[in-house]
User: Which sequence fits this backbone?
């Protein structure tokens, strides 16, 4: 009877789960166990395992059987409990000090072990009789509970990322002795509500207040003489911008931060009115999510990079007739923008102009423009051979040869697109994030297909062969190898009809050790075989081009070209095609 009871009990323990809703059969009433039942847990007991890193747990046994359930104990917290600057649980100090190279001063940072729950932290002016002068990189970054930090007089340097991503930090008291505040020092401090610049600080560093979403006002004092680009990116709640009248480098007009001559605008907000005379706008409205409309002055010549980046509410904008340059990412993320008209004066554009403009339907260009034109909602070079930007309603002309990087990126309304036979090259990320796109047919004359072109296109239909995904041409369903079907596979077979291996095709295939590229392949894209497990590769002799970093970080021990050395030398290669390959690797050749 005893042996039977043990066997039944072991079966019950294995068969039961810790779920309170699972059914469980445990013997019968005759052997002292309970019949089939639903687990019920009522008497939880603390495990006393809370520490400075994690919350504690508690455990209960089922009221009817031997199953146990362990859950977080809401009455305990993982984190330091400080008394007189020392944790009573792990005995680590609240602050850690490092003696400087001169031996005369200290840097200070929050203890990096465990979780700090202190809401207020005051840094002392001295340690061991020497002054505290420096906050090191990441010194007080990623604090999730601290709301106020007071820094001492005598502190001179706050280094890069010092308070970055301390998301509940509302107030930092900085003494006038501080002379330097580094890159991104307050980046991601979403709760920071105000800031006063110390009197010895003369320069505002790049990304200093990046994504400080609660900052409503920026007040530039007279002693600030240099403001770097991108210093105020992502201030989505900004309402007021002022500059001291005594500042010799900058001024403010109608909530616009301008250089003293009034020609360059560095910062704006939803309440800005841009004055006439401004010639260049830099990243002034980056992340201004509440900006719905803005009037640009006729004096404007250049829209700098990221000017309206992430302005989600911007529905339309009239570009002035003297505008000559639109830099990278200018309207990136303007998801409400539906149409844009480019003036005759425009001479230069950069990449990702309208990336992630999900609702952009209409693109037009003044017919008198000497460098660009629009046809069927496509922004084109004057000879129509390059497509720079497309919309949800684009029809690509039959003379286009190149689709530029990110040309249709983020056009969420794009459901279908016809690629004409003239297309020879499609740039990186050209259709990235086109969520509604279901089908693409590649032209037979396509020669180059760069990386990430169809990434984040979840509804796009592929042809699958040998654990890889392909897009086809009118005559060949396996024309272009795009990416892996199963990134954890240990072997892949490239179809014999494949002509193009797109950029990053095998980038995530980190279990494959050997690959054979068929003779018909003519193009290998950037990072195509960047696999940290790939040891052997054999290339066919039809290759015409190998792009940059094609085999980056692959631990190759065998590199074979199935042709002669003369044929290998005729292949066009990017000047960095072999970067990241083992330096002692020898290429072997075969005769015809």
Assistant:
């Amino acid at each position: 009877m005893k042996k039977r009871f043990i066997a039944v009990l072991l079966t019950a323990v294995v068969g039961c789960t810790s779920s309170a809703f699972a059914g469980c059969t445990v013997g019968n009433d005759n052997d002292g166990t309970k019949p089939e039942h639903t687990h019920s847990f009522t008497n939880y007991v603390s495990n006393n395992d809370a520490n400075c890193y994690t919350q504690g747990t508690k455990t209960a046994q089922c009221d009817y059987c031997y199953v146990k359930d362990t859950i977080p104990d809401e009455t305990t917290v993982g984190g330091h409990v400080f008394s007189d600057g020392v944790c009573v649980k792990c005995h680590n100090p609240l602050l850690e000090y490092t003696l400087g190279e001169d031996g005369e001063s200290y840097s200070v940072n929050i203890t990096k072990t465990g979780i700090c729950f202190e809401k207020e932290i005051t840094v002392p002016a001295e340690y061991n009789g020497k002054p505290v002068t420096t906050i090191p990189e990441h010194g007080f970054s990623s604090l999730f509970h601290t709301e106020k930090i007071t820094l001492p007089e005598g502190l001179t340097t706050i280094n890069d990322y010092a308070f970055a991503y301390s998301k509940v930090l509302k107030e930092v008291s900085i003494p006038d002795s501080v002379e330097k505040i580094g890159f991104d020092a307050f980046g991601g401090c979403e709760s920071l509500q105000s800031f006063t610049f110390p009197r010895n600080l003369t320069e505002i560093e790049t990304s200093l207040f990046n994504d400080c979403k609660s900052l409503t006002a920026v007040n530039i004092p007279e002693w600030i003489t240099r403001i770097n680009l991108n210093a105020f990116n992502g201030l989505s709640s900004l309402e007021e911008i002022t500059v001291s009248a005594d500042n010799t480098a900058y001024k403010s007009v109608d909530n616009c931060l301008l250089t003293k001559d009034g020609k360059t605008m560095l910062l704006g907000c939803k309440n800005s009115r841009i004055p006439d005379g401004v010639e260049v706008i830099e990243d002034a409205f980056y992340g201004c999510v509440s900006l719905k409309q803005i009037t640009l002055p006729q004096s404007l010549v250049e829209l700098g990079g990221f000017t309206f980046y992430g302005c989600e509410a911007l529905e339309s904008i009239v570009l002035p007739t003297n505008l000559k340059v639109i830099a990278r990412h200018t309207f990136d993320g303007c998801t409400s923008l539906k149409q844009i008209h480019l003036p005759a004066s425009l001479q230069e554009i950069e990449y990702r102009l309208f990336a992630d403009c999900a609702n952009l339907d209409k693109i037009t260009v003044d017919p008198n423009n000497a460098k660009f034109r629009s046809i069927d909602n496509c922004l084109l070079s004057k000879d129509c051979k390059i497509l720079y930007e497309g919309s949800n309603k684009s029809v690509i002309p039959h003379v286009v040869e190149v689709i530029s990087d990110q040309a249709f990126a983020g056009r969420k309304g794009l459901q279908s697109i016809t690629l004409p036979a003239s297309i020879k090259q499609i740039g990186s990320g050209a259709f990235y994030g086109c969520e509604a796109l279901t089908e693409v047919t590649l032209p037979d004359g396509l020669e180059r297909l760069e990386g990430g072109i169809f990434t984040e296109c979840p509804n796009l239909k592929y042809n699958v062969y040998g654990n890889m995904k392909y897009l086809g041409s009118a005559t060949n369903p396996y024309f272009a190898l795009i990416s892996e079907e199963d990134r954890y596979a240990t072997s892949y077979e490239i179809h014999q009809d494949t002509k193009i291996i797109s950029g990053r095709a095998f980038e995530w295939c980190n279990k494959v050790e050997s690959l054979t590229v068929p003779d018909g392949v003519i193009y290998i894209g950037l990072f195509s075989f960047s696999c940290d497990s790939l040891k052997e590769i054999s290339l066919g002799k039809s290759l015409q081009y190998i792009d940059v970093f094609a085999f980056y970080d692959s631990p190759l021990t065998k590199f074979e070209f199935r042709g002669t050395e003369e044929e290998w030398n005729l292949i066009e290669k990017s000047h960095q095609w072999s970067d990241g390959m083992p330096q002692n690797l020898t290429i072997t050749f075969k005769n015809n």
